[in-house]
């Protein structure tokens, strides 16, 4: 079964290379340094979100509330600074909000045993509603003078490389070290591989799950700050978009199986590159937004079908009703 | 005084009903219904005209449309999946209906068929991917959500203006959209019809059971031969078709194809399903739950809109309700059985005076001896659990076995044995009727008849349902012993209506009058309960007058007499009271008296505990089952008594080495044959002064 040895990661990377070569050959203006940087900059935020999703998915969960954490705590920073608070105070508030939100998610999933899917669906809705009802005055929170200098996070350039790419790279390194070099990382893999087995061997399953969702919320907040800094505002209506599906796409396409316990940062990078290339190419080809979605959906479907053949569900450890 | 209160409470306070009510499956729906009532009440107090006919009709119209989708999603959730693409399918079906009608100008029946086919096709894609290719339901329907939505958006660009430009005016179409039948909106009527069919489908038809079985345990369903993949796929098809019906009514009502049709619908529908109490993960759910969930969501969202709550608060409320409902649902499902097991056992007051002495030297009829020490053994190691033994008029010996067989030992030496009949449940009491049919009580199954040519037939397994009982007591749980009246009517005891056969010690711990005596009339084929509220009725024997039966109540330590005919019909009189042990089967003796098996002896600790229901209640709640106080099954004896209630003789086996326990005995030609439910042997004891020609059949039915 040599074919079975081919990882999805390898397949996706090959597709990415083929697609990249194809675009570079056929599309005028694709293979330029400027376009490459633009491509990476456009998908950096998506990539950061993908890292947060990856942590949760490796631990056999899913976090649909990432877009809410992307929108609301950073929006709070902008709003508080607009209202006259200092930047550090606003950042602290956003950080606390993210941590509290992650704790709630984690508690509901690990201790109240509500399925992750429903928990994050509902808490995301709740957080978005909270922002809409209590925190923000307008749907788009505007940049204000108090934030001067902060926009470097999104618009700065270091050694010719845009800041979002650097943030993404740093985040990749940190999360990569966490997953591969620390005990907690090993716990997350163990829990994703077999939660009952992990529990039996004495791993603190529940606290680790809570930690996963706190990390995901913090990463979502970071992605939101980068995004706000690069566009000089926070369009909170982004919550209504289908962006979360793109994040799942990055993770699943990169080869992190939804059944957990597999994959790593490299998969997120590959997934991000593929999506970035796909979107960039389609944009250059001037394909409409709906058609782009359709193509994205088809690619995602193909990836999921491939995933289910390459990483079949483990019926022994799959929970009843593990949808 | 205190004991009088305890006795009074135990007798009239129906605390045993709590556990019985909780173990009803409809209590799972009770919580959503309560939520619905609270929400409805709160909203009707805060909004004027909330319950006016116009407002209600409008609510019903929306409820019907969403209700169809909720039904579809319920089906998918019950089978163990999820369908997030309903919102996009809804939009596409809406488009399909209006496209067929406004642009193609097809007749209405064709439009309806085309729309439903469109929904079924979209669902079939999901079904194919999830059912046959075994993809994960969540991620797959998430993708189809994107694909269907972008397809809808693309179609919209091309056709929305043309659809918006035409205004079809057909009476039938308008009836679908806004008509009513006797004031009930058309969509509500259709919903009711579909819902009733759905209920029957899920609870009464085979495919519905298959769906529940797959959701409950996919692998078990597969192993029992259910076409798992096809059934799952068809559930998604049904979900698509039901969504299409909802979209059809929506299209007829509003006639628009806006960009926001069906956006976020999956969240609303999912909330309804979860709120209704359909458990995520499958195996549990009903149409009633889907309906209740739909109504709650609709009332909350419409109520909040009417109260002009800001969008953000509306989202927060909806999310909070979804979360709280999910937590309660999951906690409740996880702990329901534990709660039931804590409250189901409700010990009652059971007073017994100090028992008569049995010690050697104490005198009295129960004085211990060792007469049964040397009984000879039949079938040692070859039979298991012969609760009752009986001999036919050709001297063959019959006994039940734990494996669900009736074993026959052949006269004269009872060495050769064979399986006389296989029944499948544990045989307990047995009796021959006039035509040599062997009637047998089977624990957990009911009353069975084995004809002389070994044909096994069910005589009865249900009786009339009591009017006021919460548990369905029509099914026989533990038919125990029987005897046959001269006219052929069969009286048999059912030891308990609250527990299964293997749970008899729990019944002993509870000591409530849960048993009854049931009469089966083979001439008319009817079964009727004749006596209720007995404490573990056990042995039964027709008395000498042919108009009454003697019956033993094990945990009341007594033998009573019940007249079913004659001048005293319906009366019950005590014959033997305050026995020193727990009586079991009763049978005829050759001298016109009766044999009574005593299966175990009373002990002062349990006698005292029986007077303290609260104490036993705490024991049942806090200790594991195997540490509760149960009646002993230790050294027993056989006694002979007469109808006046006098004990004439007793036979003991003090060491229990040869024949450890006794649940029944049968006299035959000068010997006493002993059965015991925990034994691997049958005992045979030579009686000193017995009629050597006594055969029970001849005595009862006359010499053939």
What are its keywords?
heterodimer; A: 323 residues; mainly alpha; ABC transporter involved in vitamin B12 uptake, BtuC; two-stranded antiparallel ribbon; two-stranded antiparallel sheet; 4 strands; B: 704 residues; alpha+beta; Neuraminidase; four-stranded antiparallel sheet; 26 strands; 43% helix; elongated
Strand order of the largest sheet of chain B: 3-26-25-24
What general form of chain B does the structure show? elongated
Tally of separate domains of chain A: 1
CATH topology tier name of chain A:
ABC transporter involved in vitamin B12 uptake, BtuC
From the 3D structure, determine the CATH topology of the largest domain in chain B. Answer: ABC transporter involved in vitamin B12 uptake, BtuC
The residue-averaged pLDDT of chain B reads 88
As residue ranges, the low-confidence spans of chain A are none
Overview of this structure, please?
The complex is a heterodimer of chains A (323) and B (704). With 323 residues, chain A is mainly α. Chain A is built from 14 helices and 4 strands. In chain A, 72% of the residues lie in helices and 3% in strands. In chain A, strands 1-4 form a two-stranded antiparallel sheet. A two-stranded antiparallel sheet of chain A has the order 2-3. In chain A, helix 4 (66-82) packs across helix 11, helix 5 (87-111) runs antiparallel to helix 11 (205-231) and helix 12 (243-254) crosses helix 13 (265-284). Chain B has 19 helices and 26 strands. Chain B has a 4-stranded antiparallel beta sheet with strand order 3-26-25-24, with no helix packed on it. In chain B, helix 6 runs antiparallel to helix 12 and helix 10 crosses helix 12 (228-254). Chain B is elongated and about 110 Å long. Classes of the chains: A mainly alpha (323), B alpha+beta (704). Chains A and B meet through helix 6, helix 12 and helix 14 of A and helix 7, helix 13 and helix 15 of B.
